[in-house]
Write a structure and sequence with these properties.
Keywords: Glycoprotein, Hydrolase, Protease, Signal
CATH class of the largest domain: Alpha Beta
Protein name: Extracellular serine carboxypeptidase
Strand content: 5-15%
Shape: globular
Structural class: alpha/beta
GO biological process, one term: proteolysis
GO molecular function: dipeptidyl-peptidase activity; serine-type exopeptidase activity
CATH architecture of the largest domain: 3-Layer(aba) Sandwich
Family: Belongs to the peptidase S28 family.
Strand order of the largest sheet: 1-2-4-3-5-6-9-10
Number of helices: 17
Distance between the termini: 36 Å
Number of domains: 2
């Protein structure tokens, strides 16, 4: 899940100076993958579930849902590999057709690859705006019904074959939220798909997701993690003391003195790590085995925090607040604050960081949230508020990389502001997790559904191989699963054309996926269609 920023007026992170932040991860991805595929559309029903009162008043209207395909490897009788677009535009998934997992599978099995853009993302919007009423059809069950309808009705201009026929094997792939949609589609429409691969599939909904930061604590550079944890402890000690002068001085050290809400301050300084629902800069999640798609910004941040020989103007900051903490130094504070001031604040183009207008780091502008303009951030927030939750919050006990003022009420307020009650729809007081978890959560199972995860992924504990799920996880031919040691968030979706030259742990994962798909196709051929 690459959560889109919800804060106001924040520029895309650009290349920075000696504090070192790379060009935006998303920007790199789009630049590397210049659009080369033609957008096609299918007339998709807005409302697949006519019998449910949840969608009253019902509609028989359709919307134009975009898809992109690559038939360069296709040979008669080959499978269709359906990549579920997830919470972004179809264009941003092109790499999967060019060098990623779909390209690998297309070449290996003489298949056709297609990216289906999710409803309410990219340009696949059912309505011209996204009011609370217009968003009522953005649910998990409607989204996975799109996948089934597309499989049965899609056409591929220029391809001399009817690939939506019942005889053609279709295999889905999705990563993160799209991985969950893949799993749920296989659970619900198993008879029309030959198989599916859910990578880092976030199949479990939790209201609070404190575990997001656990892999960073466990696998991150120990000295960096230790310093951040200690700084956060000092920050919380100062906040809990209620010392207004000390708190203001703390904010000024980071160049964020104008921020009025302490939670906005806590979230902003957490951006290099991952702020709750907002991380417009590169974090641990954006690490990748592939230099083409990854970012080293997290390690650059840590290098600043742990610099053993900082200049005097930086090192002196470590003791600036000691008077508020019984003389104890805040080791690494100077490097931390310097990184924020040099890599984050310059990207606030307006120069306004406060929370009384469209400030870059303020989240208290209710008018901004209520804007019904179509956009991926709004769609993602709606799904989070409605069904999936997963609010990133600080742990109640033990070490924390973010201030403990960041709790669920901070995120939940955005739901209230963004989606006022409409005539036909309103959001619940808290997410209705049962709509999401009804497919099985951590224990989702379907024949020929493969679930693959990475053990350093921040979203792991919402996935099949979660540390919170029943253990052990045992793979079989019809219920395959795989945990990649040392891998992050759906790292298997990225590839190079010469798979044998990939790092061992990624190469072996791709070989496993090829073997798994081969079995899917064998099982499909054994069935009568």
């Amino acid at each position: 899940m690459r959560v889109l920023t919800l804060v106001c007026s924040f520029a895309v992170l650009g290349s920075a100076t000696p504090a070192q932040a790379s060009a935006s991860w998303q920007g790199k991805r789009q630049a590397a993958d210049a659009p080369v595929y033609v957008a096609h559309t299918i007339d998709q029903p807005i409302d697949h579930i006519q019998g449910s009162d949840r969608y009253l008043p019902h509609t028989n209207a359709t919307f134009k849902q975009r898809y992109f395909f690559d038939s360069s490897y296709y040979k008669s009788g080959g499978p269709v590999f359906l990549y579920i677009g997830g919470e972004t535009s179809g264009e941003s998934r092109f790499s999967n057709l060019q060098t990623g997992i779909i390209q690998i599978l297309m070449e290996r099995f003489n298949g056709l690859g297609v990216i289906l853009e999710n409803r309410y993302y990219g340009e696949s919007y059912p309505f011209n705006s996204s009011t609370t009423d217009e968003l009522r059809f953005l649910t998990t069950e409607q989204t996975i019904a799109d996948n089934a309808y597309f499989r049965q009705h899609a056409t591929f201009p220029g391809v001399n074959a009817s690939l939506n026929s019942a005889d053609t094997p279709w295999i889905m792939y999705g990563g993160s939220l799209a991985g969950a949609h893949t799993a749920f589609t296989m659970k619900t429409y198993n008879d029309i798909f030959a198989g599916g691969i859910g990578s880092s599939a976030t199949t479990q909904a939790l209201f609070e997701y404190r575990q997001w930061y656990n892999p960073i604590v466990k696998f991150g550079p120990a000295d960096c993690v230790s310093r951040i944890v200690n700084i956060v402890d000092r920050i919380d000690e100062l906040i809990w003391s209620g010392n207004k002068d000390g708190i203001q001085e703390l904010k000024e050290i980071f160049g964020l003195g104008a921020l009025q809400d302490l939670r906005d301050f806590a979230m902003t300084i957490a951006f290099p790590i991952g702020g709750p629902m907002n991380y417009p800069t590169n974090t641990w999640q954006e690490l990748n085995w592939s230099e083409r798609y990854g970012s080293e910004d997290f390690f650059n941040f840590c290098s600043n925090v742990t610099n053993i020989d900082p200049p005097a103007n930086i090192s002196s900051v470590d003791t600036a607040l000691a008077k508020y903490t019984n003389g104890e130094a805040w080791t690494g504070l100077g490097g931390y604050a310097d990184y924020v001031k040099k890599t984050l604040i310059p990207n606030c183009e307006s120069g306004r960081i406060d929370s009384t207008d469209e400030g870059c780091f303020g989240t208290q502008n209710q008018t901004y949230y209520a804007d019904p303009t179509n956009g991926g951030a709004r769609s993602y927030l709606y799904s989070t508020c409605l069904e999936s939750g997963g609010y990133q919050v600080a742990p109640t006990n033990g070490p924390s990389l973010v201030s403990r003022v960041l709790q669920v009420d901070y995120t939940q307020q955005w739901c209230t502001w963004a989606f006022p009650p409409g005539e036909h729809n309103s959001i619940p007081a808290t997410p209705q997790l049962h709509y999401y978890n009804k497919y099985g959560g951590w224990d989702v199972h379907a024949e020929n559904l493969a679930l693959i995860d990475g053990n350093t992924d921040v979203w792991l504990d919402l996935c099949y191989h979660s540390n919170l799920a029943s253990q052990p996880r045992i793979s079989s031919d019809k219920y395959p699963s795989y945990l990649i040691a040392g891998a992050g968030h759906h790292w298997d979706s990225y590839g190079i054309k010469n798979v044998s030259a990939e790092p061992d742990y990624i190469r072996e994962a791709h070989y496993w996926e090829e073997r798994t798909v081969s079995r899917f196709l064998e099982f499909w051929a054994e069935k009568e269609h």
